[in-house]
Amino acid sequence: MKLLRHGAVGQERPGAIDADGRARDLSLLVPDFTPEWMAADKLQALAAIDLSRMPLVPDGTRFGVPVAGIRQFVAIGLNYRQHAAEAGLEIPREPIVFNKALTSIAGPDDDVELPENSVAGDWEVELGFVMGRTAKKVAVADALSHVAGYCLSNDVSERDWQIKRNGQWGKGKSFDGFGPTGPWLVTSDELPNPQDIPLELAVNGEIRQRSSTADMIFPVAEIVSYLSQFMTLLPGDLVITGTPQGVGLGMKPTPQFLRRGDVMTLSAGVLGTQRQRVV
Ligand code: ZN
User: Fold this and answer.
1) pLDDT tens across 205-225, in order?
2) Structural domains of the chain, with CATH
3) What's the gap between Cα 237 and its chain centre?
4) pTM of the complete model
């Protein structure tokens, strides 16, 4: 299924995409897609719903983040071989982990507001995943069974705050709206292999990033297992898995950063598309 939440900020209702690609409202049957709805038995119950009988969501309705009440937002850094190369950094021996503030999470098409005086805003198209059940010290072989589904995220970054303000990276990645996520969550039964997803990001129509999750250094199964060795992952937790080459910071001969008025467009195959205006 493709699960989504639609409506104004703070008033989102659950929904899903039907066989014809139209959004249907599920609020008559489900209060909201809270973390407990990410459990396998709940997802199976959702899959049994005849979407064609559910009300259509009007065209143009805003989409929010597909899961409500996310409790942890974890990110992986430098997880693509060619991105590590453009950053001039060695391939990490273990995953680089940082946190983004929960308040940075936004809908897939919400405006991205740069902080005052910011001149180093940057883009990062990423594969995200949402946990379906608690993961504590899980093995790589068992890891993907803990994942409820996958989504598209933009790990918007302010490089001066990230790099020049004395650590940690989260400083540059936690501003309100710096985590657009959605438009929907593709449940993992429909995406058994998350390592073959195309990723693309353009700024003002010019392609900046074009890659595939096949280039990831640490695939999703290894990330889940690794994180679960030192922290307990909870249902509904959102993890984003690193960005491929082509960020503004890596552009030669000089880095190029976001300006107010720019438009970022992202796509990731079955995970859908995003569009954000920079304000
Ligand atoms: Zn990132």
Assistant:
1) 999 999 999 999 999 999 999
2) 68-277 (3.90.850.10)
3) 11
4) 0.97
pLDDT tens across 247-264, in order?
999 999 999 999 999 999
Q: Report yes or no: 220 and 195 within 8 Å, Cβ to Cβ.
A: yes
Q: Which residues line ion ligand 1, judged by CB < 5 Å? A: 124, 155, 243
> Could you tell me the distance, in angstroms and rounded to a whole number, from the CA of residue 18 to the centre of ligand 1?
31
How many angstroms does the Cα of residue 47 sit away from the middle of ligand 1? 31
For residue 222, how many other CB atoms are within 10 A of its CB? Answer: 16
DSSP letter for each residue of the chain: -EEEEESSTT--EEEEE-TTS-EEE-TTT-S---GGGGSHHHHHHHHTS-GGGSPBPPTTPPB--SSSS---EEEEES-BHHHHHHTT-PPPSS-EEEE--GGGEE-TT--BPPPTT---EE--EEEEEEESS-BSS--HHHHGGGEEEEEEEE--EEHHHHHSSSS-GGGGG-STT-EEB-S-EEEGGG-S-TTS-EEEEEETTEEEEEEEGGGBSS-HHHHHHHHHHHS-B-TT-EEE----S--GGG-SSS-----TT-EEEEE-GGG-EEEEEB-
Ligand 1: distance of its center to the CA of 126 in Å? 7
Query: How far is 187 from 38, CA to CA, in rounded Å?
Result: 9
Chain segment 148-197, per-residue pLDDT in tens: 999 999 999 999 999 999 989 999 999 999 999 999 999 999 999 999 99
Distance CA 187, CA 204 (A): 31
Q: Which one-letter amino acid corresponds to residue 195?
A: Q
Question: Ligand 1 centre from 155 Cα, in Å?
Answer: 5
